[in-house]
Design brief:
Largest sheet: 4 strands, mixed
Structural class: alpha+beta
Number of strands: 10
Strand content: 5-15%
Strand order of the largest sheet: 1-2-3-4
Number of helices: 12
Radius of gyration: 25 Å
Distance between the termini: 28 Å
Helix content: 55-70%
Length: 377
């Protein structure tokens, strides 16, 4: 998820970005506010005023979602839970957790922080409206503030539903986890409830569609599909984490990797290596055996085809860094998280400046498939 995430800014050390699907949501919200909600509630204003209200209301919703997710992230940091960033997408926002909460209390506090922040924000906007009406602020300003008070209240209420991975579902999971002392069982139960709630929303969407509410029905259907898929994915991710945790990457690496010399022409790299072995990344190793970096097909694509014969691998390769090299003793789950963050499916495994192997995502997934098949009931 979020492979094409667009980075916007950083707040308190957390990177905030948007998925391209957010543009669809922003346009739909601005249109529905400008052409539907505000004209129905505040009559007699100009079309331009309604569109300005819709645009400001959409920006206010953007701020509200970021505020909600930032609350999760700040609490997660306090409990040592890694957050890979905050992303807004077509169904709202998500603080991307790198690790599972260490204990039920951490899960509960982190989950409840979001709805509480939305309730506080709703109250703040409502107070602002009340003060504004007394002091005589323009009707469009009061209208936008009232909308933001309402939408934050709805955001808090919806997230408190006990449907994993919504905040309410995480609160439920924390309670089940504290009761049975079994995170896997708690996740399985709460994800099944979340999946069932998703099916309910899908059926509600179908019902609304046949009633003639096409737009509303479509949204309920899509949200239900998203919740159902997210609930199942959350449990699968936990199984993945539990299966790989504690396993060093040396268990999965290929100890006879195919390497290229820095002086190799790009044309030879393509024809003799890429087309022969079908890999997207090759370690670059000098004659002395020293690892100096790696070269990828993505880097080759930036070289004009007519220059392939005169350009060398050394000119386009990347140096060794934490983004492409791991140590043999590195935890496999940490390596997998790094793969997810960088979008790379192959990592070099090295001791010092000596290459000892290649870690491939497909090899870890094969191990995971066998382990789950043998050990899960």
């Amino acid at each position: 998820m979020f492979e094409k995430r667009i980075r916007l800014f950083k707040v308190f050390g957390f990177e905030v970005g948007i998925d391209p699907s957010w543009a669809v949501l922003a346009i739909l919200i601005a249109w529905s506010l400008s052409m539907g909600l505000f004209p129905a509630r505040y009559r007699g204003l100009s079309t331009k005023t309604y569109w300005i209200m819709g645009a400001v209301g959409t920006l206010g919703l953007f701020f509200s979602i970021v505020f909600h997710e930032m609350s999760h992230s700040l609490v997660a940091r306090r409990y040592g839970i890694g957050i890979g960033g905050i992303t807004l997408f077509i169904f709202g926002g998500m603080a991307q957790m790198v690790d599972e909460p260490p204990r039920p209390k951490a899960e509960f506090v982190m989950a409840i922080a979001g709805p509480i922040s939305s309730i506080l924000l709703s109250l703040a906007f409502y107070v602002a409206v009340s003060i504004g009406l007394v002091s005589g602020v323009p009707e469009p300003v009061a209208g936008v503030l009232m909308y933001l008070a309402m939408i934050n209240g709805l955001l808090a209420a919806f997230n408190l539903l006990p449907a994993f991975p919504l905040d309410g579902g995480r609160i439920l999971r924390s309670a089940l986890w504290a009761w049975r002392k079994d995170l896997k069982w708690a996740t399985r139960v709460s994800s099944r409830i979340g999946s069932a709630f998703g099916v309910f929303l899908i059926l509600l969407g179908v019902f609304e569609f046949f009633r003639g509410n096409f737009i509303g029905g479509l949204w309920w259907f899509l949200i239900g599909m998203f919740l159902r898929g997210s609930a199942r994915s959350a449990y699968e991710q936990l199984l993945l984490r539990k299966a790989l945790e504690g396993e060093p990457v040396e268990r999965f690496m290929n100890t006879e990797p195919v390497t290229v010399n820095p002086s190799l022409p790009v044309a030879d790299l393509v024809h003799d290596y890429v087309y022969r072995y079908h890999y997207k990344m090759f370690p670059v190793v000098e004659e002395s055996g020293r690892l100096v970096g790696c070269v990828t097909t993505r880097q080759v694509k930036h070289v004009p085809r007519e220059d392939w014969s005169r350009r060398k691998v050394a000119e386009i390769s990347s140096a060794c860094s934490e983004e492409n090299v791991v140590a043999p003793e590195t935890d496999a789950m940490k390596a997998l998280s790094l793969m997810t963050r960088t979008g790379s499916s192959r990592f070099m495994v090295a001791t010092g400046n000596r290459l000892v192997g290649i870690l491939a995502l497909k090899d870890m997934l094969k191990f995971l498939s066998l382990k789950v098949e043998l050990e899960e009931t």
